[in-house]
Design brief:
The protein is α/β, with parallel strands linked by helices. The chain has six helices and nine strands. The chain has a domain of about 150 residues: P-loop containing nucleotide triphosphate hydrolases (Rossmann fold). It holds the Pfam family ABC_tran.
Amino acid sequence: MQVVANRVSVAGPRGTALPSTSLTITTGELIVVNGESGTGCTAFGLALTGALRPDTGEVTVDGAADLARLRRHSALVDAPRVSAPEGQLPVHDVVADELAFADLPSDQTAVSRLLAGHDLSRHAETRIDDLPAESRTRLLTDLAALRPDVRMLVLDRPDRHTGDVEGWPMLAHEHAERGLAVVVLTATVSVSSLFLPVARLGELDQPAAQRCAPEVPV
């Protein structure tokens, strides 16, 4: 699956929320998209996953402008006021909700098994906003990837939780290696510290994404 954002922009209540931006990402690839805080990271994530129709430009999936297919095959992870869980929710409730959304068993046994697999059993009652940053991002990303039709993950600013530049890049690479398309939106990280291709909001000529999984013959 290939997703192409072609000159996508979004207007905001006080001007341009997302300046014209282009990007191409294919399953098995990974790319970071950097934009200064407040310049439309979440707006781009919403457009890229088919949840928001851009004011100019378009997003296509395998050459077709099919927003329903984009929504079905993509997940926007931990986007503030969009897909991020309510901060006061205990971790076990967040896990149960995400398992149910993925049409998977979400009873106490299933939740306990998943938390144990992430070495988070001791954090079952912890508020999600109090979970260590790397654990939070991994948990929410892994849960989104469990959805049966998801083929693209868009992580919304994991760098807002931590200054670490090893945890979330490794996580993103793992999911791309498994064959998903992975886009990581960032705002505060120093891009010079990343050993990944970095695209930028507001630009049309972007670097190629990094291939992490073998291409599947059509």
